Amino acid sequence: MKGRKKIGVRLIGLFLLILIVAACSQSEVTDPVVEDKLISETDTVFIGFLLDTLQDERWYKDKALFEGAVEKLGGRVKTLAANGLDDVQIKQAELLIEEGVDVLVVVPHDAEVSAAIVELAHEAGIKVISYDRLIRNADVDYYISFDNEKVGELQATEILKSVSSGNIAYIGGSETDNNAILFRQGAMKVLQPFIDKGELNLVHDQYTDGWNPAVAEKNMQTALRENANRIDAVIAANDGTAGGVIRALAAVGLAGSVPVSGQDAELEAVRRVVQGTQTMTVYKSINLLAEQAASMAVKVAQGQEIATDKTIQNGKTEVPSIFLEPITVTKENVRETVVKDGYLKEEEIY
């Protein structure tokens, strides 16, 4: 009897397991995004949004704003973030293509590796919009971003209002991000004449792996050590790297006395600008970027041509582009820029 009971229990357990597996399989087959797009909502624009990462404050805002803008236009968005892993981003692209997206909007992690995403999309007849960061060496359909050389120019110009001679350090972004290269090019346009005249000495010039603030801090520590702490100004490519730079400066008692640039107008950075440890940041209206990118994506998905007045060479082709204007933010104009735009709240900053 005991043996029969055990067999009965096992049979019941096996039957339940089969039911569970069948239920799981059924849910996979009828994934709501796939079903809605391919069956019940064939007229609804379906956009795939691939983000490099959601580990930075800035990209959460892009995600929310872009999704909201597309939904207002009657479309749907599925957003996936690779958190800095190239193979993951490519797999996510494959997934969205399989699910039937009409267009892919991509913030690439690696500008070169992401060319594979464009190839995969084009094989499936799907166009690709490069968002904020340029995908290189691929037939990208459209690019929307800010004038990124102008960002570097604004950073260097503002720093030179505080320092016109001495030792300067450049703490760049990730070399795999084409924007980081453009930021540096813009900064060097402004700095080079002073370097050539011997008024400025570029004593440290280094990119920052993965835009990692901890790496930026180590790079700044190296710059300080190699120059006996005699650094008169720092151009940091964004607010994250600026945070690392300022921690290194604080450790040797120089935070607030050495001008430091930034970019992205992150809350902590704007607080540092107000407090005086960071000289400036560059505000790029993500609201405007997300809205225009959403409009572009919906039009592309509907088969419309996009009117652009500029192109950018990505190593393979001249990519039709839209460039938005960046804005310098200092202690004096915080209220007239990021607060007025509703990007940050005054009570958060002060």
In short:
The protein has 350 residues and is an alpha/beta fold. 48% of the residues lie in helices and 17% in strands.
Topology:
Blueprint: H1 2-29, H2 32-40, E1 46-51, H3 57-72, E2 76-81, H4 86-98, E3 103-106, H5 115-123, E4 127-131, E5 142-146, H6 148-159, E6 166-171, H7 178-196, E7 200-206, H8 213-226, E8 233-236, H9 239-251, H10 267-275, E9 281-283, H11 286-301, E10 310-313, E11 318-324, E12 327-329, H12 335-339, H13 346-349
Structure explained in plain terms:
The chain is an alpha/beta fold and 350 residues long. It has 13 helices and twelve strands. It has a seven-stranded mixed beta sheet, sandwiched between helices. It has a three-stranded parallel beta sheet with strand order 7-6-8, with helices on both faces. The chain has a two-stranded antiparallel ribbon with strand order 9-12. Helix 3 (57-72) packs across helix 11, helix 6 packs parallel to helix 7 and helix 8 crosses helix 9 (239-251). The radius of gyration is 25 Å and the shape is globular. Mean pLDDT is 89; it is low at 1-40.
